[in-house]
Amino acid sequence: MVDxxxxxxxxxxxxxxxQLAEQYYARACRLVGQAQATPxxxxxxxxxxxxxxxxxxAAIVRAAEKGGDPFGALSAFGLSTALGTVSGEDxxxxxxxxxxxxxxxxxxxxxxxxxxxxxxxxxxxxxERALLAIEQPDVVGRLDGAxxxxxxxxxxxxxxxxxxxxxxxxxxxxxxxxxxxxxTLLEDRVARMTEFLRPRVTGDGRSVPRQFLLFxxxxxxxxxxxxxxxxxxxxxxxxxxxITNRLDNYNDIARDATLLMIDPETKKDLPESxxxxxxxxxxxxxGDSVLPAKAEAGAPALHSFRAGLETAKGAKVALFAHSYGxxxxxxxxxxxxxxxxxxxxxxxxLGPTIKxxxxxxxxxxxQVFAMxxxxxxxxxxxxxxxxxxxxxxxxxxxxxxxxGHSEYYMQKNTGxxxxxxxxxGDGCVQTFIGSPKLDDEQFGAANVRVLVKELQSRxxxxxxxxxxxxxxxxxxxxxxxxxxxxxxxxxxTKTLADSGLGGYFAPQDVAQIVGRSLTEAGLDQR
Length: 526
Hints:
Structural class: alpha/beta
Strand content: 5-15%
Helix content: 40-55%
Order of helices and strands: HHHHHHHHHEEEEEHEHEHEEHEHHHHH
Strand order of the largest sheet: 3-4-6-5-7-8-9-10
Radius of gyration: 29 Å
Shape: globular
């Protein structure tokens, strides 16, 4: 096992001997001439180069002691491995200065904070930037405003360490409690993270390392991945997903990003384009998706991420938000987060105060679009306000063959074509043709909307999440149009009782709510 302290001692010994050798070289040049002293000069160069290389190796070994392959992480993204050129004093200064600039920006607006971070890194040498990536990856990997390649290297190292850690946890769990449901979740997480370390094959067949601007395995996990070359892309899309997205099922988001990146004509990556998946917040499950808390908590993170995004000069950046991600994006936009274009897909609403595009207070020239596919019950419930697909100032787009809540990125389809057109700015979008009313698109849509709102109004706010989880199967059944008054009343009564929420409703309340919801849909005679 190579010891970093031994390498550093050997490097110091060579440096000290080199200083003595320089004195002999100077004397030899005076006594026998420079030509005769050439062998000594070669030895001096060897001693200097070797001392530097030993210092580099010592720094890398020290970082590797915490896990992962720091040399590989730096090399994968073209960062310097000449870490021995940074002295011990400089390392202490770097750590102190980075901590200071982060602390000073803690209460500043995202634009000011990320500008200060960017300026700090611009003053560093290549070796100093690389050193911070492998010595403080947990800080640098998520640091908005830091250079993208530095964050890529830091997060790759974090992924390697997380894989090793969770593999140990998985082995221990299988040995002691193999039937524990947590084992399946851990297996999926380890599988996803292991895939992160494998190259991505681009549309033209090149293998490139996967690029992460954020990686945090804590809880459900947080990830931001870049598809394409962010440094040269003139067109960038940031995808914000919604409910039930986590590290273990991240493949679904990555698949959509890959489909968005592929040119339908050439089958290669779209030219001069990049796509970013931003799973940078704690997404809700069905139970708490009716509450705005996680959107409110996540909006500042999206604002910060956008402010710190390192893009090519003049690049256009689009925001593609889906499901609960539209609520979070709405709140980020209201904070002043700038995007050149915005698309809301399958939205449960943008907040109770948002009635039109003007309420978002967007910058001049920002284009706003919306998509709602037939059968997307998340939109039909309008759990967080009006669906943007029906708002003034928002252009509704056609979705083609898409149906339900999760097919907006369907391959070879009008919806995906529209998204690619907005991303690249090349061509014309296809707008929705038909009645914009919810109940004209899906049997039972108005029914669901009234049923959900009436039920929610009868329970305390802290119970709304439980209610949503319990009624999700019923909502799906109602959307299919196969439920009459007696059946729906019985299902509702049983579900309330089974979930422990029946105490908030009298029998006549349930009958009244069901009757009202079916009347709204014109089904009261069934």
